[in-house]
Amino acid sequence: MTSTTELLLPPSRIAPPMTAPALRWGILGPGWIAARFAEALRHHTSQRITAVASRNAQRGSAFAADWGIASVHGNYDDLVASPEVDVVYVATPHTSHFEHAKLALEAGKHVVVEKPLALDAQQARAIAELARSKNLFAMEAMWSAFLPKFDVIDQILTQGMLGEIGTVLADHGEHFDTDHRIYDPSLAGGPLLDLGTYVVYFAQKALGRPTAVTAVGQQANSQLNGQISAILTSATGAHAVLNTTILADTPNLAAVCGSSGMLTTEGVFYRPGNFTVSLRDGRSARFVDDISGYPAGLAYEAAEAARRITSDELESPCHTMVDTISTLETLDELRRLLGIDFPS
Ligand SMILES: NC(=O)c1ccc[n+]([C@@H]2O[C@H](COP(=O)([O-])OP(=O)(O)OC[C@H]3O[C@@H](n4cnc5c(N)ncnc54)[C@H](OP(=O)(O)O)[C@@H]3O)[C@@H](O)[C@H]2O)c1
């Protein structure tokens, strides 16, 4: 007769976003994600948005009216110079992240920059160095990294609950209409830097930096890559099998599989959501998330930044600059392998 004990998952250590000290945020680039971020701050945190900057006065004013923001700036320079702003959230397209992160840091402001932090690892290193030299906080808004779900996954991996990890699977595919910015090569379009950031981030969370990368690509059109399937091999010989595409909706699932068991997500892996751990000894446990996707999930990254900035820390340990740079190094390698060139 065998007796099995119940499988218990570690509890999340992430405090509710509402409890983070309130900072004054300036939003740079009031587009799609900026609206969700503003909604997250307004309804799910005690953070204050004191300013927004747009290149278009009408768009800036409409955004300010929607989210009760007192100051609207008609250019980005004025926002970063504002004494009413503690931290700048950069929500412009990837091609501008480097320039706008630098703009904010040089004006003495802490920064939270949408993913990907920059176009490549070299730009990311320069942002990290600038922030450090100015004693300012910098963080990539890889929102998954700050969610309670990912804190529990982190602990499961650190505790070795799954045994030796041999395989990671992750896909992130979303069908976009061709008028979306993701189809614009001059905005570094294609899946690589947008959706691909998530699958590479997830693979490296489980397996660390790869020692070898292979990939095949499919064009969306003559100017733009549309799909990438990649295998990242780790130092232990483990494989991360990844897919990212802008040509079709895919299940967006992920799994981490080891010698003792596996973790499988339900629904979109990089958002809040449930997952199951099933061990080879028959035990299993389900993580049931009490957060839904946008906008509530975005509150965690803002709360994390506010906590770290208030305690004079320059980075978040949940997602360090080294993590960000190392993801971008792999994205650089995929870009090199597939000959993906972004017109400057
Ligand atoms: N965390 C997430 O889940 C998530 C989801 C979607 C996107 N993102 C990231 O967020 C960033 C923005 O994406 P989005 O979908 O929000 O883009 P979007 O809707 O096109 O908004 C981008 C904003 O940036 C400003 N901008 C500055 N320079 C620009 C340029 N050369 N071309 C176009 N817009 C420019 C525009 O604001 P003004 O003209 O008004 O100044 C525009 O509203 C991307 O890097 C993306 O990867 C993250």
UniProtKB/TrEMBL annotation:
Record keywords, A-Z: Oxidoreductase
Keyword Plastid: no
Location of the GFO/IDH/MocA-like oxidoreductase domain: 153-263
Pfam family name, one: GFO_IDH_MocA_C3
Coiled-coil residue windows: none
Domain Gfo/Idh/MocA-like oxidoreductase N-terminal stretches: 23-138
Superkingdom field: Bacteria
Family: Belongs to the Gfo/Idh/MocA family.
Protein name: Gfo/Idh/MocA family oxidoreductase
Organism of derivation: Rhodococcoides yunnanense
Taxonomic placement: Bacteria, Bacillati, Actinomycetota, Actinomycetes, Mycobacteriales
